[in-house]
Amino acid sequence: MSLEIKPYVLDFKFSARTSRGEMSDRKVWFLKLIDKDGRFGIGEVAPIQRLSPEDVEDVPNFLERLCVDIEEIVTPESEEEVYDVVSKLVPPAIPSVRFGMEMAFLDLIHGGKKLIFSENLEKIKLPINGLVWMGDKNFMQEQIVEKLNQGFRCIKLKVGSLDFETEIEIIKSLRSVSEDLIIRLDANGSFQTNEVLFKLKELSKFNIHSIEQPIMPMQHEAMELVCNRSEIPIALDEELIGIYSSRDRVDLMQELKPHYVVIKPTLHGGFASSQEWIDLAEIHGIKWWITSYLESNLGLNAIAQFASTYSNSDEFHGLGTGGLYHNNITSPIVIDRGYFSYAKSSVWGDIDF
């Protein structure tokens, strides 16, 4: 087999603020796996510096080494064989590359048609949340109006970047639109442990569905207390990063007892790893949803197909990020009235390797 690599810079339509700073663009690497018969599959490696567990600067060197290691690999014939091969090629501490390699292999064995998990994209219709990015009050309110006009029934707001009173005003205004609207919050660990329960109590007045990662991860005693006492259901996000062994994952579930977990295949090491998180969550009675990690439309397509293999249709996934970029890869992905689906004509943009 052989592996080709194509670096690509995705340009945001606006300055995207995260819990670790602002981004005007983000770099990804597209992978092209080619077998001895000339068949190929495309994958995407999309870590984010200071958010992903791996050092983004180390990714190109590792990919170059993979180009050598892949030469002796025999093409896997099943999903299980793909996961086994990739687990031997890529250590778990480089989750974005595991995701990209799994995606490329799965695309290859399914014919190289971007059909990673589904043979009929037209049957896919997933409810998704409308994401409101961090920003000043006016910017956030403009986004809220836009999402409501677009027909989203679930709105997710990033909180923790403005003063608390201003954020309360924004949420109160949003709740006044409708009592039926589902409001999710994501704090990205921004609340301090000595204030978190007070803030959660204040926010609970607005019938909040859930809040992701209210305090910084790796504070297990504090997080256990928050999960137990919060008047808003807690969803773990960053808390899952860097936990690779099954035993440690079970311990986390049993110790913290969250209400939800947020599954990000790029961040958690691909589809096999994400499947394990989901299986463990369901065993422990914990609900979950799947979220993209600002991948291009290629990675987003793979994640959406993965989400479509499950039957938790009552949860809203976080898959509405494809419209963030000026120069995203052309795709048949459609976001309409709060649903992720595909157009009938499966037209994909080419990548010049």
Automatic annotation (TrEMBL):
Any GO MF annotation of the entry? racemase and epimerase activity
Q: What EC number(s) has UniProt assigned to this enzyme?
A: 4.2.1.113
Q: Which residues form the Mandelate racemase/muconate lactonizing enzyme C-terminal domain?
A: 137-233
Q: Which InterPro entries match?
A: Enolase-like_C_sf, Enolase-like_N, Enolase_C-like, Mandelate_racemase_C
What are the GO BP annotations of this UniProt entry?
A: menaquinone biosynthetic process
SUPFAM superfamilies per UniProt: Enolase C-terminal domain-like, Enolase N-terminal domain-like
**Annotated keywords:** Metal-binding
Is the Iron keyword given for this protein? no
Name listed for the protein in its UniProt record: o-succinylbenzoate synthase
EC main group: lyase
NCBIfam families hit by this protein: menC_gam_Gplu
Q: Which domain of life is it from?
A: Bacteria
Originating organism: Ekhidna lutea
